[in-house]
Amino acid sequence: MGTIENVNLDYVLIHAARVGDNAVVEEILSRGINVNVQDEKGYTPLIIACYNNRYETAKLLLEAGADVNGFDYGGNTALMGVSFKGYPEIAELLINNGADLNMQHGNGGTALMFAAMFGRNDLVKLLLTRGADKNILDARGLSVTDLALQQGNHEAVALLESE
């Protein structure tokens, strides 16, 4: 059974990951707190760090054993988050640490789909180069090309067609 102190440290770890306070992250992890703890939405410290563009914190968490393919309660991974937000350096870090390029969230979306829908074409290019599957369909039966067309992202469509 977790103590009150451990529950509080879980939240402190997640907050430290959000703001990129690596000294606090290191201190909490040194106390044996689970690096893959989840908050009320299922966000892990790694997901939070990545979503908030905290490269060094993400690297630290991965080195401490964070699950690169951990997902929140909606099925979203850190790679999906950075693909939506547009952080290619962190995407590269995650991919180099074994991120599954083709994981699908609750509605069947992939990191490639998020990148294409939100105009993150540098990430579209990166994900395709690293082997993301452009033929996966979401829960509605739509492909990444369909989603890019819906958003008027013709650059992504061109990238998808050239791969």
UniProtKB/TrEMBL annotation:
<feature type="repeat" description="ANK">
    <location>
        <begin position="107"/>
        <end position="139"/>
    </location>
</feature>
<dbReference type="Pfam" id="PF12796">
    <property type="entry name" value="Ank_2"/>
</dbReference>
<keyword id="KW-0677">Repeat</keyword>
<keyword id="KW-0040">ANK repeat</keyword>
<dbReference type="InterPro" id="IPR036770">
    <property type="entry name" value="Ankyrin_rpt-contain_sf"/>
</dbReference>
<feature type="repeat" description="ANK">
    <location>
        <begin position="74"/>
        <end position="106"/>
    </location>
</feature>
<feature type="repeat" description="ANK">
    <location>
        <begin position="41"/>
        <end position="73"/>
    </location>
</feature>
<dbReference type="Pfam" id="PF00023">
    <property type="entry name" value="Ank"/>
</dbReference>
<dbReference type="InterPro" id="IPR002110">
    <property type="entry name" value="Ankyrin_rpt"/>
</dbReference>
<protein>
    <submittedName>
        <fullName>Ankyrin repeat domain-containing protein</fullName>
    </submittedName>
</protein>
